[in-house]
Amino acid sequence: MFQRTPSQTVRPSAARLRALAVAAVAAGTGAATLLGAGVAAADEARVAPLAATSATTTAVAGQAKAQSKAAATARQAAAAKAASWVQPVARYTLSAGFGLGGSMWSHKHSGQDFAVPSGTPVSAAHGGTVVKAGPVGAGDGPAYGNAIVIRHANNTYSQYAHLSKINVRIGQSVATGERIALSGNTGNSSGPHLHFEIRTTPNYGSAVNPVAFLRTVGVRV
Question: Which residue numbers delimit the M23ase beta-sheet core domain (predicted)?
């Protein structure tokens, strides 16, 4: 008859348990580290395109702002030019002045003469609309020769006479400083020059001192 041998439970030692615990902690730490690294890499992958998009948006916004500022500056310059007055010719010698008397005129001189060679470019002293243009003083009489009258704001008109060539037509809008004619020696003229008037109506007989008027708008001749 066989005799049964009692079983024995093998218990791990305390040192063995500590070693297993340390190994488990180390494994957990490594996993956490790997997981953290993966999360950080994923975050960087998401942030990179966002940063690039933000930089592009900032650059586009900056460019748009610069373009808007440039456009505003251009508009201001155009507005300033439109509001300004200029001399009708660039280089000249002042000759007969406003109110001068003499045998050359049936009445006193109604404008300011700018002595210039024939063919000198004549510019609109201010922006406006051409209301007269043609020979025989454009209706004001043969003494003026070829002439132009431009209507400006506030019932002000400018006249240009003794022209050799007219480059505008009635009803045409002109800008300040735009070339409208070439000077000449047509009509009652003792030599090549531009006769320039400032009027309160488009017609002869309403002239005011053009030099004094130009001074009030910041132009000295």
Answer: 108-210
Residues 6+ apart with CB under 8 A from 144: 136, 137, 138, 159, 161, 162, 187, 188, 195
Alpha carbon distance 152, 85 (integer Å): 11
pLDDT higher than 70, residue 65: yes
Is residue 188 within 8 Å of residue 195, measured between CB atoms?
Answer: no
User: Is it true that domain 93-216 has CATH number 3.40.1390.10?
Assistant: no
pLDDT of residue 39: 47
How far apart, in whole angstroms, are the C-alpha atoms of residue 120 and residue 50?
Answer: 64
| pLDDT tens digits along 168-215 | 999 999 999 999 999 999 999 989 999 999 999 999 999 999 999 999
Q: For residue 95, with 0-12 CB atoms within 10 Å meaning exposed, 13-18 middle and 19 or more buried, which class applies?
A: middle
The full DSSP string for 49-82 is HHHHHHHHHHHHHHHHHHHHHHHHHHHHHHHHHH
SS3 annotation, 139-191: HCCHHHCEEEEEEECCCEEEEEEEEEEECCCCCCEECCCCEEEEEECCCCCCC
Domain residues of the chain, as ranges? Answer: 15-83, 93-216
Residue type for position 153: A
Give the global pTM.
0.64
* Contact criterion met (CB below 8 Å) for 85 and 176: yes
Distance CA 153, CA 61 (A): 40
Amino acid residing at 169:
R
